[in-house]
Amino acid sequence: MKDNFSSQSDQYARYRPTYPAAYFDYLDTLVPNKQTAWDCGTGNGQVAVQLARTFDRVFATDISQAQIDQARPADHITYSVQPAEATDFPDLFFDLIIAAQAIHWFDFDRFYAEVRRTAKEEALLCVVGYARPTITDAVDQVVTEFYTQVVGPYWDPERRYIDDHYQTIPFPFEEIEPPAFAHELSWSLEHLIGYLNTWSAVKHFIRANGYNPVDALRARLEAQWGEAPLRPVRFPLLLRLGYVS
User: Fold this and answer.
1) What is the tally of structural domains in the chain?
2) What's the CA dihedral at 12, 65, 84, 239 to 10 degrees?
3) pTM reported for the whole predicted model
4) CATH number, domain with residue 46
5) Side-chain-facing half-sphere of 17: CA atoms under 13 Å
6) Is residue 94 in some structural domain?
7) 165 contacts: CB under 8 Å, gap ≥ 6
8) Domain limits at 176?
9) What SS3 state is found at 36?
10) What is the maximum alpha-carbon separation in the chain?
């Protein structure tokens, strides 16, 4: 499991999108027993906090101590630094296991073995993430060119699973076909720039070249953004769901 985000944990907490309430409401309908949930690859605990509203106990793990240090404290949540593929949780323990914007970094076979070990019978596994945002056609074109041409060579190979909307990951479970979800937000240009600076490919580019490519992108984004202080931003969710039998 790779750790690409320890060095930017504060930016990650500030600029990365969360997930819509409707998505969590939908999960609630699929998991009648809400004793225990595992948020695997929790990052700063965004998903764990949402799960704690309906689950008795939430266990949130990440391999990054820096990310856990940024995690949001809440009742019923226990944070720990552990790899997804080898935890200290008991057998047959969880009603829900969720990996949010994380599974593409995992060793699939070892993680799924850990899922089967720790999941209760008929527990739900949820793999969720989000695609690139859409804003306006003009802004989207600038961001797409930056994504593919400027930092494209610096993405980790695992990024392809996001580009494929998680449809090409192995998923050996009793799958459920979910409805489509998207997160609708209002962002300033500064928030968009902050979000772009959290991309792992940007960090790789900086290490290789000694400067931040987002700085040069700012002028192009400003020209296409216009005068509006805020613009609607839409993140389509990527979702795979299945019961662990």
Assistant:
1) 1
2) -10
3) 0.91
4) 3.40.50.150
5) 25
6) yes
7) 131, 238
8) 6-244
9) strand
10) 56
